[in-house]
Design a protein that fits this description.
Mean pLDDT of chain B: 86
Distance between the termini of chain B: 12 Å
Low-confidence stretches of chain B: 554-570
Helix content of chain A: 25-40%
Helix content of chain B: over 70%
Shape of chain A: elongated
Oligomer: heterodimer
Structural class of chain B: mainly alpha
Number of strands of chain B: 1
Strand order of the largest sheet of chain A: 1-2-3-4
Chain lengths: ~160, ~575
């Protein structure tokens, strides 16, 4: 078939073949090979705590999310405050439509820890699609043998709330 | 000297016209308000006092604007009176053309905005009074009448100018730019309104109100008012300007002769066809993405929501796609009707190359991203804590973009290949083809260089110990994809450009004159009296082909400078 074509048609077939090959390769790598799935971090580590906190947040379970905060944060912010704050703020990866969280480092010092994460957000549609990456540092404390997040967060963004009086 | 005077007269005319229109619209608005068409609801302050203050301001603005405009516009109009010796030069001047383009554009914008607001407020008042702004419609009607009358007056003046004689250069082209820009903007507003109305109807049928509204609320009122005002105003501007332009095309006089070969008319069809094709592609990609996300289980939308997320963008895509097709067909039909073989060829290229570039832009972008995903997942990456679904979401987003974009490119580029096979030298010499290839080469090189620069920045950062956040493979993967695709695109089009150059070189006719021989070409330039012969000589000198020069001994003074009575009087 290719032999009967002129140079233009041959180049078109090559380009089309390349495009289809890359598309199929991407589909295979993501779907068939499973892509890159989150690794399961131990529950008794600071990073494992954040991972479970994010899972609960993505599931929309506000009560479970609230339990991941330290006693000090919960003292200042009731579950109702938190639910209201999440409802008002919403969560869409900071205005993006999708995103990933990568674990970078953890510094543990006694009963406190700082987990450094990279948050990758994907914004826009079509030709205006873009990504942004930012670093996020989360403070945790150990309470009754378990790590708890020691700052009010909506997903991984700082949360601002009006305490209920 | 004359140019400076024209700039002054038309600048002051334009500014004073703006002041006058504002003052008159305020006065008329107050009159309508006193007749009961003013703001509704309980006033926050004494309305009578407020109206008196507005009347004072409006009267002052009108009192200042009217004499200023009369004085300057009278001077502008006096200079184009047919009994003036320099009337033809003034009437066809670039500055007057620029004035008309800006004045008609600004007045149309104000008129259309007022009409749009009037329609929106009327619909909201009838369907959901609580959502209406309560400003009343008196101000909108006043602005519509005053700005509309000023716009109509300028349209009449422009037609009168044309009736007095032919125009060329900026005097003809600049107002023509207004005509086709207004037609395109009107088309876009119309299509946006039309697709918004379709989306609204779809939401109503599916029972899916907009986010943030409770059941029973009139969530549809503002979108309905917005869509209808877009359809009415955009449609009126688009159809009105296009019909007017169509009338010009059929004119048997010098105006038609000027309009028919106008490149701006072609540009309108190309821009409309390309922009609507891009919108159609984008919307079709959006529908496909939603469908794939549902298939892959990464969407949280319910069944009826998903039906809307797929069907509504598809319907909008069809509307934009049909518009693109109709514009391309209209452009072809018009060229065939004119019977100009060269124009038919140009139009055929304009039908193919710009759309191929739109497809290439979407397809190459999607392909680069897909390649980036592959690189990201093949290389050892960072430790993912959350967001494994993001890869599926990206796949759903970029597979349709790649296949739809490169599908469009493939179809158009195949036709380009047929043109090349039939007439290689004609195609290689085409300006449209050369511009398209050079544009892709430039964009490909710039995208490739920018992405490569980012990769090197991160590599050098790693070498020099600069601390940076994130996982290098994830960060660099998209840039690597962009470099590979951009390099491929640039190389392919660069090769085509080089081949075109070879074909052009082979097709060039042999030199008639031997090396070192000079030929003399005699030119006679005719035109209206009163022009500076130095300007004409300079214009001819600039237009000469490479290797030619204007010999001073062969270029005697071609006219006698005349003294403008207005300038002499000043």
């Amino acid at each position: 078939m290719v032999r009967g074509m002129n140079a233009h048609d041959r180049s078109l077939v090559l380009v089309a073949g390349g495009v289809v090959a890359v598309t199929i390769l991407a589909i295979v790598v993501v779907l068939v090979a499973g892509g890159r799935q989150p690794e399961t971090f131990p529950a008794d580590t600071p990073e494992g705590t954040i991972q479970r906190y994010l899972s609960a947040f993505d599931a929309g379970d506000h009560a479970a999310v609230y339990d991941f905060f330290s006693a000090e944060v919960r003292r200042r912010m009731s579950l109702d405050d938190y639910t209201l704050m999440v409802d008002q703020t919403g969560h869409d990866f900071g205005g993006a439509q999708t995103g990933r969280v990568l674990f970078d480092t953890v510094d543990v010092s006694g009963d406190t820890a700082r987990v450094r994460l990279t948050v990758e957000r994907i914004y826009g549609d079509g030709l205006s699609t873009s990504t942004s990456r930012s670093t996020s540092e989360i403070r945790l404390v150990r309470e009754a043998g378990a790590w708890r997040i020691d700052e009010p967060l909506v997903w991984l963004d700082p949360g601002y709330f009006e305490p209920a009086h | 000297m004359q140019t400076a005077r024209r700039l002054y007269v038309y600048l002051l005319s334009g500014i004073s016209l703006g002041v006058l229109v504002t003052g008159l619209a305020m006065l008329l608005g107050l009159l309508f308000e006193s007749l009961g068409l003013g703001p509704t609801g309980d006033p926050l302050f004494d309305r009578g006092e407020g109206m008196r203050q507005q009347l004072t301001v409006a009267a002052a603005i009108t009192a200042v604007g009217l004499p200023l405009w009369l004085a300057h516009w009278t001077a502008a109009e006096r200079s184009v009176r047919p009994d003036r010796p320099t009337a033809a030069i003034e009437r066809t001047s670039d500055v007057r053309g620029l004035y008309f383009a800006i004045a008609m554009g600004a007045l149309l914008l104000v008129t259309a905005t007022a009409l749009s607001s009037l329609i929106r407020e009327s619909i909201l008042g009838a369907t959901a009074p609580a959502d209406a702004y309560g400003d009343g419609i008196g101000g909108d009607i006043a602005t519509l009448l005053v700005a509309g009358a000023a716009w109509a007056y300028h349209v009449w003046l422009r037609s009168r100018d044309w009736a007095r004689g032919p125009m060329t250069g900026g005097g003809a082209a600049l107002p023509r730019t207004y005509l086709y820009a207004a037609a395109f903007i009107g088309l876009w507003i119309f299509l946006t309104g039309f697709t918004s109305l379709m989306e609204l109807a779809g939401r109503a049928i599916l029972g899916e109100p907009e986010v943030g509204f409770a059941p029973g609320e009139s969530w549809w009122a503002y979108p309905l008012a917005d869509a209808v005002s877009g359809i009415v105003v955009g449609g009126a501007v688009w159809v009105g300007h296009l019909l007017y332009a169509r009338g010009l095309m059929r004119d048997t006089g010098w105006r038609g002769a000027s309009e028919r070969p106008a490149r701006l008319r072609l540009a309108y069809f190309v821009v409309a066809s390309v922009a609507t094709a891009a919108a159609s592609l984008y919307l079709a990609g959006d529908a496909a993405r939603n469908a794939i996300e549902a298939l892959l289980g990464v969407s949280e939308a319910s069944g009826s929501q998903m039906a809307g997320l797929i069907a509504l963008p598809l319907l909008s895509s069809a509307a934009f796609g049909l518009t693109s097709f109709l514009h391309a067909r209209a452009m072809e039909a018009e060229a065939a009707e004119l019977g100009d073989e060269e124009r038919v060829e140009t139009v055929d290229r304009l039908r193919l190359y710009p759309l191929a570039l739109v497809g290439l832009a979407f397809g190459a972008f999607g392909l680069a991203w897909l390649l980036g995903i592959v690189v990201d997942l093949v290389l050892p990456g960072g430790r993912l804590l959350s967001g494994g679904d993001a890869y599926r979401s990206e796949l759903a987003r970029f597979v349709p973009l790649t296949l739809l974009g490169l599908g469009l490119w493939f179809v158009r580029w195949r036709e380009v290949g047929v043109r090349w096979t039939v007439d290689p030298s004609g195609e290689a010499a085409s300006t449209v083809r050369r511009a398209a290839l050079l544009l892709v080469l430039a964009v490909g090189l710039l995208a490739g260089v920018a992405s490569l620069g980012y990769i090197l920045y991160r590599l050098f950062g790693a070498l020099f110990g600069v601390t940076s956040a994130g996982d290098p493979s994830t960060e660099l993967s998209r840039a690597i994809g962009a470099v590979v695709v951009a390099a491929g695109v640039a190389a392919y089009h660069g090769i085509l450009l080089r081949r075109d150059g070879t074909v052009r070189a082979g097709a060039e006719p042999p030199e008639v004159a031997g090396p070192g021989e000079r030929v003399t070409v005699a030119l006679v330039v005719r035109g209206p009296a009163g022009v500076d012969d130095g300007e004409v000589r300079e214009a001819v000198r600039r237009a000469l082909p490479a290797g030619y020069e204007l010999a001073e001994e062969a270029a005697p003074a071609i006219g006698r400078a005349e003294v403008d009575p207005d300038v002499a009087g000043a």
